[in-house]
């Protein structure tokens, strides 16, 4: 099937628009790969739910492949995540020697420059490390360094860094935040042992968000509040891993109530979409077992095996409406990055769509107007 033949004329069902649900048909402009118009029609299928494509800003791997491998790793990772409804992602690095980060960035740059129609669009880089606190490494290796604007500029020239995680309490990092923001990079606090005051100071300096909230950071002790407390008290945006293992539902609800635009990420590793066994996360061996991914040495949680469609279902399972859950995997991450062309189903936006059944299982994925080949793992197309 050619790419032209894989462009749907319209998608029918219950369509989630910024103004609520509309039963009808969403028409795709085949020439531009954008949404043409949406027409209400009570005769449209009632058993199909049409959502914006999922946007995942924290992805280390999938399908046995790790972003740090470089080469075509990013394309392979993006193909697997597309089968689970992710239409846009950020390839995420690990703390590593500079030459290994260079290799990963060159691989990501190639994926950015030549998008694969059957893969999620790799929009840029989430640089997670090496500007972290060695006291809160989690699954990151002990290769942290102090941040340098010269180093970031060099990496940014290889592949666009959209998000950068750092520990704001490390000497020199507070002054680095506005310099990074001036480059258009969204700076997040993570792998941090900072105090509440450190978090507030970072927000005042231009900190934009928080990396995998509650994990890899000082917490919410009522007498010694840390970075998580600053996020809950003052954060507008934060990412969270809703696999129900990194964060239990009670803490998730607290964060949902406190942070207006809390959004979901997978923190997915090479173990995603694979059977139980050993995989690599950067230079470290991890073990997938019973849905969790842990370091082989140390037993710390080491990313996840989560996909965005399961993240959506988990949010609904703990009590969110489907509309609210959808915003947290689509609209809010788009708004966080300042993306104007995706995250909502309105005319003129990229036709990035996910079609679900009433069981919230994937029925089809459309990326920039291109229907993902059913052979890649989706059910038969549901387009007219």
Automatic annotation (TrEMBL):
Q: Which residues form the Amidohydrolase-related domain?
A: 49-370
What does this protein's record comment on cofactor binding?
Answer: Binds 1 divalent metal cation per subunit.
Q: What InterPro entries does the database record attribute to this sequence? A: Amidohydro-rel, GlcNAc_6-P_deAcase, Metal-dep_hydrolase_composite, Metal_Hydrolase
Q: What are the entry keywords? A: Carbohydrate metabolism, Hydrolase, Metal-binding
Q: Which cofactor does it need?
A: a divalent metal cation
Q: Which Gene3D superfamilies match?
A: Metal-dependent hydrolases, Urease, subunit C, domain 1
Locate the residues binding substrate. 139, 215-216, 223, 246, 301-303
Q: Name one Pfam family in it.
A: Amidohydro_1
Residues that bind Zn(2+), according to the entry? 128, 191, 212
Q: Which residues form a coiled coil?
A: none
| Active site per UniProt | 267
Q: Which family does it belong to?
A: Belongs to the metallo-dependent hydrolases superfamily. NagA family.
Name the chain's protein. Answer: N-acetylglucosamine-6-phosphate deacetylase
